[in-house]
Each structure stands twice: as structure tokens, then as C-alpha cells.
UniProtKB/TrEMBL annotation:
Major localisation: endoplasmic reticulum
Pfam families: TMEM208_SND2
Membrane topology of the entry: Multi-pass membrane protein
Designated name of the protein: Transmembrane protein 208
Alphabetical keyword list: Endoplasmic reticulum, Membrane, Transmembrane, Transmembrane helix
GO cellular component term, pick one: vacuole
Organism (species): Corethrella appendiculata
InterPro entries: SND2/TMEM208 (IPR008506)
Subcellular location: Endoplasmic reticulum membrane
Entry's family note: Belongs to the TMEM208 family.
Length: 174
């Protein structure tokens, strides 16, 4: 294992980002297609006929996978000039802490749920993890900070009080 580097972290070039994005898209495409093919194959051959719940949840799962994959494709689409050089590499899908990380998680949960639903229909409830996680992220990064934000007037009043108190202390010391 290489020792950790000191100083500035190296950045990726546009060509490297495009190549890594292509590999990432291939992996997640294969994940979505593989889970769907396995699910339909096993269901058609070994399970009883589709029930309304199974059809509905399968449509939701497949739509989630398709939507996530299309969103990742759109995010990572590079802009190439007429001469063939890369103007913009698109969003790096392998960047930590970005929205692509959440989209990849959605695709993984949808694919895993689809495969686990072969064991029991109760595994469809795992799809509820997606909106629960979205609400959690929205609460932590948007709603809670907005609700707990202090008014500027309150802070200004407190600052004026502190300023007066400091002035009184300074007068006493003289």
C-alpha cells in the first residue's frame, strides 16, 4: 500500500473522467438489466401468475432503475468540440459526496429489492427506503436550517446590548 500523499490532492483530467464515467455507466446498466432479466426469468418460469401488487411494484422498480440510469447518463454526458477535443467532461459520477452518489444508491436499492422480491413480496417495502432517505436529506440540508435560522433583528439587538455593556465596562476602568 502506498503511503498517503502530502499536500494537494491530484485532480483528474477530462479524458480520465469521461473514461471512468463510461465504465461506471456500463456497470450500473449491467446491474439494472441483470436484476430485471433474472427477476422476469425466475418469475415467468417458477412463480405463480402475476398479481396486481407484483405488477405494480415491478413497474415502479423498473421505472426507478431506468430513471436513475438516464439521469446518470444525462449528468455525465461530455461536450465535445468539432475537432474532437473535450470541452466539458460532464459530472464525475465517481465523485464522493455528489448527487451521483445518491442516484447510484437509488439504482442499487431498486435492483436489490427486485431480486429480493423473488423470495418474498414483503421485500417490496424496501423501496420505501428511497423516499425516506430523500426526506431525511431534505430535512437535514434545507428544512431544518431554514426553520432554525435566526432573524437578523434578534442578533442585532443582542449585539447592541453587548456593545453597551462593553462601553460601561470601559468607562468603569478609566
Amino acid at each position: 500500500m502506498a503511503p498517503p500523499q502530502k499536500g494537494k490532492q491530484l485532480t483528474k483530467g477530462a479524458k480520465q473522467i469521461v473514461e471512468e464515467n463510461e465504465g461506471t455507466l456500463k456497470f450500473y446498466r449491467n446491474l439494472a438489466l441483470g436484476s430485471s432479466i433474472i427477476y422476469f426469468f425466475v418469475t415467468f418460469l417458477f412463480m405463480e401468475p402475476f398479481a396486481g401488487l407484483t405488477i405494480t411494484m415491478t413497474i415502479i422498480s423498473v421505472a426507478t432503475q431506468i430513471g436513475s440510469f438516464q439521469f446518470m447518463t444525462m449528468m455525465s454526458r461530455p461536450q465535445i468540440s468539432e475537432s474532437g477535443s473535450i470541452l466539458d467532461s460532464g459530472t464525475d459520477l465517481n465523485m464522493e459526496g455528489g448527487i451521483s452518489e445518491h442516484v447510484k444508491d437509488i439504482l442499487i436499492v431498486a435492483s436489490g429489492t427486485q431480486l429480493l422480491a423473488l423470495i418474498s413480496n414483503y421485500f417490496w417495502f424496501l423501496l420505501l427506503a428511497i423516499p425516506i432517505r430523500a426526506i431525511w436529506l431534505l430535512w437535514g440540508s434545507v428544512i431544518k436550517p431554514w426553520l432554525t435560522a435566526n432573524n437578523g433583528e434578534q442578533e442585532q439587538q443582542v449585539d447592541e446590548k453587548k456593545q453597551k455593556k462593553l462601553e460601561r465596562k470601559m468607562k468603569r476602568m478609566r
